[in-house]
Specification:
With about 300 residues, the chain is α+β, with helices and mostly antiparallel strands. It folds into 3 domains: about 90 residues, Ribosomal Protein S5, domain 2 (2-Layer Sandwich), CATH 3.30.230; about 45 residues, no CATH class; about 140 residues. About 65% of the residues lie in helices and about 15% in strands. The chain has a 4-stranded mixed sheet. It has a two-stranded antiparallel ribbon with strand order 5-6. Helix 1 packs parallel to helix 4, helix 4 runs antiparallel to helix 6 and helix 4 packs antiparallel against helix 8. The radius of gyration is 37 Å and the shape is rod-shaped. The mean pLDDT is about 90.
Length: about 300
């Protein structure tokens, strides 16, 4: 599956039964899927179906969907007149005019001051409402997904570059680690030699060897480097579309695991140069995590 951003916009229109429905869909970052649907009363019955479509197609993100409905061009509204009310109002106005010696009232006065004329849209059956909303929403979601994928390509390119930087930093740490380990061993031997000179006795060679082995094991970062490289390779695979599911959550998890390995390397290998590279790696990884959180 291709990499897609969680940010996007799409709009679609559908026409049926004398009505036109326009649906707009926007999405932004969110840890899960959070839909918010706004429909006019005529389309309210379509809300469950619309939410189901959004969940199925978008999976992740805070999604806002807004639908509007209007009459299609050439569709006449339904007009009704309350003849009884209009006649009663006209009679009352005529009597008032006669009593006041005024000119007889016209129909325009009745229409302005009496609720006798009703204009409304043709009724919209629930099945037509759902068909209209889903038809327009399909186009809107398609447009949103296309925008998400375009942004996803840019995010993937940026992340791949940062993964390359992290791989280079790991390589530098791996090259520097043996010399650091040798220096730690030499420093420990010097401490043993000073202790022997100060105490005037010879330390047990077996014990010295055992201490050196323990020190080397504690300071060895080979496993951490191997695991970090594996995580970065999985990162590349996810960005290449190897997963059948959206990769955002996987990238977020891999970022956390990479941070764990960098922290362990920093704590095990107490060397200023390696510590500096670990800090650089954490800075780069933080940028990776920020970008990965934009991915669906």
């Amino acid at each position: 599956m291709s990499v897609a951003s969680m940010t996007g916009y799409g709009a679609g229109t559908a026409t049926r039964g004398g009505y036109v429905v326009r649906v707009e869909v926007r999405s932004v970052n969110h840890k899960g899927f959070s839909p918010r649907v706004t429909l006019p009363a005529e389309l309210a019955t379509a809300e469950p179906a619309l939410k189901a479509l959004l969940r199925d197609r978008l999976v992740r993100g805070a999604v806002d969907a807004i639908a509007r409905v209007e009459l299609a061009a050439g569709t006449a509204p339904e007009v009704t007149v309350d003849v009884g009310a209009a006649t009663a109002v006209m009679t009352a106005l005529q009597e008032l005019a006669a009593a006041c010696g005024a000119a007889p009232p016209g129909l325009d006065l009745v229409l302005r001051h009496a609720n006798v004329l009703h204009v409304q849209s043709p009724s919209l059956p629930p099945e037509d409402a759902e068909a209209l909303v889903l038809g327009a929403a399909e186009d809107a979601v398609a447009g949103l997904i296309a925008m998400r994928e375009r942004e996803g390509e840019a995010l993937a390119a940026d992340l791949l570059a940062r993964v390359g930087t992290l791989e280079a930093l790991l390589g530098e740490v791996e090259v520097a680690a043996p010399a650091v380990l040798e220096g730690m061993e030499a420093a420990l031997r010097q401490r043993f030699a000073r202790a022997e000179a100060k105490l005037g006795l010879e330390l047990d060679p077996g014990r010295v060897t055992a201490e050196l082995v323990v020190m080397a094991d504690r300071a060895d970062i080979t496993e951490e480097i191997v695991r970090a490289r594996t995580h970065l390779e999985r990162f590349r695979e996810a960005l290449a579309g190897a997963d059948t599911e959206p990769c955002g959550r996987r990238l977020d998890f891999l970022s956390q695991e990479l941070l764990r390995e960098l922290n362990t390397i920093g704590s095990k290998c107490r060397d200023a140069d390696i510590a500096g590279r670990v800090v650089d790696g954490k800075v780069e990884l933080e940028k990776v995590r920020e970008q990965a959180q934009n991915i669906a």
